[in-house]
Amino acid sequence: SGRVSLSGSGSTDDSRWPRQNSLSMKEWDIPYDELKLFEVIGTGRFGTVYRGSWHGAVAVKLLHVNALSDHSVPLDTFKHEVATFRKTRHENLVLFMGACMKPPRLAIVTSLCKGMTLFTHIHLRKDKFTNNKSVIVAQQISQGMGYLHARGIIHKDLKTKNIFLENGKVVITDFGLFSVTKLCFGNNARGDSLGIPPGWLCYLAPELVRALRPHASLHLPFSKATDVYAFGTVWYELLCGEYPFKGQPPEAIIWQVGKGVKQSLANMQASRDIKDILMLCWSYRSLERPDFPHLLSTLEKLPRKRLARSPSHPVHLSRSADS
Ligand code: ATP
Asked: Is 43 helix (H, G, I), strand (E, B) or coil?
């Protein structure tokens, strides 16, 4: 009796619901005029990140909007991805604060990350991460990623450039915005002929590498398991201080990963348990990769060097790797 009739047509057009939802996103709208933009922090493929101010320090990602109108990704996709982004609240994820949604001013406002990215620590400063520290960082990444996956969000671009370290705390950025930020703007002259930006390839799972086609990354089969593969590469970078397949040309990497050849771990200074995690995350078959809750518990059980361990708390890692 309390049911509201929407129309006389009786049609059940699902496509109207996302549109209605987007109305409730008004509360996340930030009027562009309220933003203060200071210096450019960096320019990605899709837009420019500014240090800014909006009720305090923020990071503002200003999208290159002329590119948006030239391409097929519509405003709806941007709104949809912003809607996903705003559903996230976790200690290890960057804080979404709002967005400017009126074209031609499209921007995403997040908290400003202090500290440096793992990429800067590992590849530019050549900071060494002890195994213990790598485990702590990996646990926090697993926590943030486990949360995202539990909410049905696939990161699609997990990499050390998108992970900040703030006084020992991991903050993951750039999740769920892949179509907007990478796809309509991504396949440009900065990449190679397949539209592959430098430093991207070694995060791509075999099923993604096999699906690569020139200018068609929109249809890549991203999944929770491809995020886990990317996590494996981050884990390798933490432990080894370099990218897998270092120094090899893209064609060689594509050929090897596509056939299931993995970076050799022969020269790696790490325990069996640590290498097992890597091999599981890099499993050729996506179903064989662990999920983040499983990774977290595996990481928590790793023996820590020079830390007293109670004998009543034995470790059975080899067993969990069988499952
Ligand atoms: P790509 O376009 O390949 O993803 P990228 O990750 O470097 O490259 P952006 O995500 O656009 O590109 O980031 C540009 C710069 O802004 C990077 O140096 C990044 O570390 C920095 N940055 C992004 N978000 C924040 C943030 N919330 N706080 C501080 N710095 C940020």
From this structure: strand
Q: What spacing in Å lies between the alpha carbon of 2 and ligand 1's midpoint? A: 49
More confident residue, 73 or 63: 63
Helix (H, G, I), strand (E, B) or coil at 254: helix
Q: For ligand 1, what atom is nearest to the CA of residue 174?
A: 10
Q: What is the pTM of this model?
A: 0.83
Question: Residue 157 catalytic?
Answer: yes
More confident residue, 292 or 177: 292
Question: 């009027």: which residue's tokens?
Answer: 31
Q: Is 112 in the pocket of ligand 1 (CB under 6 A)?
A: yes
- Cα–Cα distance between 272 and 269 in angstroms, integer? 10
Q: Using an 8 Å Cβ cutoff, are 49 and 109 in contact?
A: no
Query: Which residue is associated with the tokens 């050929």?
Result: 255
- With a 6 Å cutoff on the Cβ, whether 44 touches ligand 1 is yes
Q: What is the dihedral of CA 194, 198, 199, 202, to 10 degrees?
A: 30
* pLDDT per position as a tens digit, 113-141: 999 999 999 999 999 999 999 999 999 99
Cβ(60)–Cβ(52) below 8 Å: yes
Alpha-carbon gap, residue 282 to 230, rounded angstroms: 8
Q: State the Cα–Cα distance between residues 50 and 112, nearest whole angstrom.
A: 10
Q: At what angle do helices 224-240 and 131-150 cross, to 10 degrees?
A: 170
Q: Whose CA is nearest to atom 9 of ligand 1?
A: 44
Residue 171 alpha carbon, nearest atom of ligand 1: 27
Do 257 and 209 contact (CB within 8 A), yes or no?
A: yes
Of the residues 161, 166, 181, which should be mutated to test ligand 1's pocket, given the most ligand atoms within 8 Å of the CB? 161
pLDDT in tens, 76-104: 777 888 888 888 999 999 999 999 988 77
- Rounded distance, CA 149 to CA 295, Å? 13
